[in-house]
Amino acid sequence: MKKVLILGGGFAGLEAAIFLRKDKYDVTLVSDRDFFYIYPTSIWVPTGETRFQDICVDLKELQKAHGFDLIVDGVETIEAASRRITLKSGDILNDFDYLVIAMGASKMKAKGIENSLSICGAPQQSLLIKEKLDELIAKGSGKIAFGFGGNPNDTSAVRGGPGFELLFNVHNMLKKRGLRDKFELNFFAPMPKPGARMGEKALKMMDIFLERTMVQKHFGKKIKAFEEDGVIFEDDSKLQSDFTMFIPAGDGHEVVKSSDLPKNPAGFIKINDFCEVEGFENIYAVGDVAAIEGPDWRAKQGHLAEVMARNVAHNINEKEKNRTNKKGYQEHLNILCVMDSGDGAAFVYRDDKKARMIPLPIVGHWLKKGWGKYCRLSKLGSIPRIPGM
Ligand SMILES: Cc1cc2nc3c(=O)[nH]c(=O)nc-3n(C[C@H](O)[C@H](O)[C@H](O)COP(=O)(O)OP(=O)(O)OC[C@H]3O[C@@H](n4cnc5c(N)ncnc54)[C@H](O)[C@@H]3O)c2cc1C
Q1: 340 lies in a domain?
Q2: How far apart are CA 346 and CA 367, in angstroms?
Q3: pLDDT digits (tens, 9 = 90+) for 35-67
Q4: How far is 41 from 58, CA to CA, in rounded Å?
Q5: Which atom of ligand 1 sits closest to the CA of residue 304?
Q6: Which domain holds residue 94?
Q7: Hey, whose CA ends up nearest to atom 50 of ligand 1?
């Protein structure tokens, strides 16, 4: 049985493990945390609508369900040419036929970033955001700023959607508690039209949502620094804030940056359409860790990470069977999400031909909740997978 080593236990790494095990490969998965984290539904942890543990799926349970070997340890270095992985514990992994790198992205580091928290950062940050919001609610009033940043070296690594989702959820939570008029909600981003890659119609609709929820907009000014009590912009103006939630853009993973893997200017691993790492035999990169090629609006997303992972499982199988019918990820490039607002959601879809945003009042919120449950149960093998999901 050929041996596959997978680095990372997120959407990409786990999906690769599940599909390679279906084909009976000897799979070892390395993850620096002992749980799979369902990022898209973590937006409800800060408002208390979901418990942190409901977003986490124990990797040991997933191991039992699919039969892969699990190492909970951090990857310290990757030496691709000598096919040698060193773990934080000092252990060395070099006995594998195929390597699948799926460790996600690091984050851009703005000055004073420690004065903010991110819903897209380490999972535990969602709990810290909850603490901050609870503190302000106990105080009875305050100013809250939500925002996201850019990466000039790779626009696909920008993630703004969860920022909007959290903002709308906080708005609705405050409204329900009769406190909305006691809080000033702000949204900031360095680009003049944040969210533009979802398409013109979506942009207009977001504008209507922001107006309706009385959110003050601060767009088109580069961010200079974060301070304890606010955000400083390039022109030295300051957005006062008692709490700042900021999503830095993704950046190449630190371990990848210091490796001999080929990288784009932002530090993401260069791959071809089949997720094969340029210049290396039997080494693949999938999900947020990889440089995604395609149209300007392309985005790193969970469903794309899963398509890439399934393709890699298929492509490895083709290789083992001396066949050449490989699958590429680029034909699957699209933006697809259900953007939640706490009292409903909007279905967002964009590809080369069309861009849509369809409001789904009330039902959209429950659809996304249902997807979270489906994600957990289907990954655990407790319910069947819906093809393509
Ligand atoms: C709040 C939020 C909401 C989102 N909503 C959506 C959505 O609605 N739809 C959508 O399609 N996408 C969404 N996304 C994007 C989606 O979650 C990511 O694209 C997806 O998680 C990428 O999967 P990945 O496996 O490549 O990376 P990750 O999910 O980041 O997983 C990386 C894995 O590698 C592990 N790892 C990292 N470094 C090391 C190391 N040194 N050693 C060992 N292991 C390591 C981590 O522990 C983790 O298990 C959202 C993201 C966030 C943050």
Answers
A1: no
A2: 11
A3: 999 999 999 999 999 999 999 999 999 999 999
A4: 16
A5: 11
A6: 3-105+252-332
A7: 40
